[in-house]
Amino acid sequence: MGVEGKDRAKVLEAGAAALSNQLGLAVQRLRKSYGLSLADLSSQSGVAKSIISQIERNETNPTLTTIWRLAHALDASIESILQGAEEGPFIEHLRRGTTPIFVSDDGLCRLAVTGWLKTVDWLQWYDFQADPGGVLESTAHARGSVECLSVLEGELEVDVGGSKEIAAEGETLRYRCDMPHRLSNLGRRPAHATMVCILKAAAMD
Q1: Please, what sign has the CA dihedral across residues 21, 25, 30, 36?
Q2: 3-state SS class at 112
Q3: Quick check: pTM over 0.90?
Q4: pLDDT tens-place string over residues 156-189
Q5: CATH classification of the domain holding 155
Q6: How far is the C-alpha of 204 from the C-alpha of 85, rounded, in Å?
């Protein structure tokens, strides 16, 4: 049996209030679980700190755009945010053949994207393999970006703006990658490394 008129309005108002309360509790729980302050979440989501505070205290009805921004910043689905549900353990299994792989122009280097695509705007990591003589040319990343190259097998040379350094097995090179840079395998055997790129990692003069 349905409700009409004033009774229907009261039911809808009560439902909206309950949903808003669930939203506020979910946002506050997720924010605190990540150790984020209101200012931190505001910076990451683009939602004003005062609005987030009002949402958590159930004092406002946010737009769908606001909810989406908060959900994205808290790495949660809109559904879970609206339901206020606790999210279970997270395990993502990538099968063979689903990992994107890029090949250098000379065909001798392979760069497998092993990082999480959700973090690609600020953190990227790869599995890098280079046959003897292989060269990977890279354009400049965002200003302040830093790359970390850890060699697992063989040797690799890094050339950044004419400055060159060689890393052997078990060694790591960290270098600015906000200018054109090149990785080369100058040895006689294949080289294997992990590569992590932190975008806008630091302000560099």
Answers
A1: positive
A2: strand
A3: no
A4: 999 998 999 999 999 999 999 999 999 999 999 9
A5: 2.60.120.10
A6: 42
